[in-house]
Amino acid sequence: MKLHGAEIVDTFAEAFGMWGSRVVITAATPAWALEAGRSMTGFATSVIGCKCEASIERELDPDETPDGRPGVSALLFAMDAEGVGKRLVERVGQTVLTCPTTACFNGLEAEDTVDVGGQLRYFGDGYQASKVLDERRYWRVPVMEGEFLVQERFGVVEGVAGGNIIILARAHETALDAAQAAASAMRDVEGAIMPFPGGIARSGSKVGSRYSALPASTNDALCPTLRGQVEHTDVPPDVESVFEIVIDGLALEPVREMMRRGLVAAAQAGASRVTAGNYGGNLGPHHIHLRELVP
After folding, report:
1. In angstroms, how far is CA 181 from the centroid of its own chain?
2. CA–CA distance from 218 to each of 51, 65, 89, 210, 247 (Å)?
3. pLDDT tens readout for residues 143-160
4. 56: β partners
């Protein structure tokens, strides 16, 4: 298949289930909301080494937030609902509660919930107070600046993780331009995130390693510098650089839409080939075929 001169490999991305939640962070200014959002989602690129995957979903206008202040929404994913709850308590407690002027709210109505504010309230050392509005409990935790407002319970759903596209190009600059164009086009999709820095990963991994302590290691079949050293390579002779974009979503459709937009944008920006990573159908139940995404 060809799209804007790029070869679209007839393969599929293999995605699997992870539990996710949406956090809404507000603050006195957009800058402080972004600061808290960036801190909360830091060191969260891969569940393999970070225990969760997270990123800012989008910025929010005051008329989109519970308290009428500027904000951001962020998505966080872990392998189970309990894991989502633990990571939210850790990250909201260490990065949002501590950030000047912030408040924190649940952004996802769901049947399943985890206790976040109900755990963080103990930081108030007995001086915390709660209020129920519209059958939702909020906690006011005293801090040196004033009070930190946090919702008690946050919704969690079983989402879809591991959607991906892999971008190959003849020159490093072209590959990076194509990856950046793809990531930019994908950011407008609500309900999904790209957890790696800037949405782009240069260090795609494979399952396992020759070192027993490592659960994953470099994807040698897609490393251009190893083209002549490995038994099997997926890097054509004229390709100098490869980037991967990984996608997590609260549902399958946002992941598919992100992949579609990224595939088109990468092809338009000069990629010579776009493919996707899978494990032959053995990793996850969601198989997103690139041929179904080509316009």
Report:
1. 17
2. 19, 41, 32, 11, 19
3. 999 999 999 999 999 999
4. 74
